[in-house]
Amino acid sequence: MAAAAAPPPPPTPAAILLPDSTPTGHPLFVRVRLATPSDVPHIHKLIHQMAIFERLTDIFSATEASLSSTLFTSPPFQSSTIFILELSQTPFPPSPTPLFFSPITQIVTLDLPIDDRETETFKSNNRDGGFDAVIGGFVLFFPNYSTFLGKPGFYVEDLFVRECYRRKGFGKMLLSAVAQQAVKMGYGRVEWVVLDWNVNAIKFYEEMGAKVLQEWRICRLTGEALQAYGNPAN
């Protein structure tokens, strides 16, 4: 009589693959905060880069001294106010209790790291910005008034993001911070101008919900034309 065959081994259970919890991409920590007098050297450099981009270096005459003497002379939001865009490879430490504005922080995950060749030039001077924070842009705005609405608003004089940080949502983050502050203060609108050849910026603003007023023109008195009014004979 033949021996009975051994029973087949039980099937091996299929391996269970757990999702990889390792974050992908390159996280970048972003913060929008109020500018301080220590930011003036960087603000001046940013304005100069903006003048180059806008092809207006022929009328650029601001100096660090002129900025220092005319900015930060009033509490924030009562006159010219600047939000600074800061970026860091590491999380920002908690900020001290703010008096006027709580910094807005965000984590952006990028496919590739940003090649910032001006890291040392724009290294943040802010004491609570961490050791590797750099300044990537700014927005300068001040209050105006709409008689039709019967409400104040904000006028954005400048919005600028350094070239290596563009097209990543940082300009929208700066402008959104101004709009959020306007809503918080019960203001009626936020306005600014855009160069007619800057089609990318026009598209960007329209996608944010802004209306481009084609029928309006800017009128400006400056230089000798303005100084002529200092003569009582005129």
**Basic shape:** globular
| CA distance, first residue to last residue | 131 Å
Give the biggest beta sheet.
6 strands, mixed
> How much helical structure, as a percent, in the residues?
10-25%
- What class would the helix/strand composition place it in? alpha+beta
- Evaluate the radius of gyration: 26 Å
Task: Give the tally of β-strands.
Answer: 6
Low-confidence stretches: none
Instruction: Tell me the strand order in the biggest sheet.
Output: 3-1-2-4-5-6
Alpha plus pi helix count: 5
Topology as a string of helices (H) and strands (E): EHHEEEEHEHH
Question: What's the overall average pLDDT, rounded?
Answer: 90
**In percent terms, what proportion of residues is strand?**
15-25%
Describe the protein's architecture and organization.
With 234 residues, this protein is of the alpha+beta class. 21% of the residues lie in helices and 21% in strands. The chain is built from 5 helices and 6 strands, in the order βααββββαβαα. It has helices at residues 40-53, 64-70, 170-184, 199-207, 223-227, and strands at 26-34, 81-88, 104-110, 134-146, 151-161, 190-191. The protein has a 6-stranded mixed beta sheet with strand order 3-1-2-4-5-6, with helices on both faces. A hairpin with a 4-residue loop joins β4 and β5 (151-161). The longest helix has 15 residues, at 170-184. The protein is globular, with a radius of gyration of 26 Å. The termini are far apart.
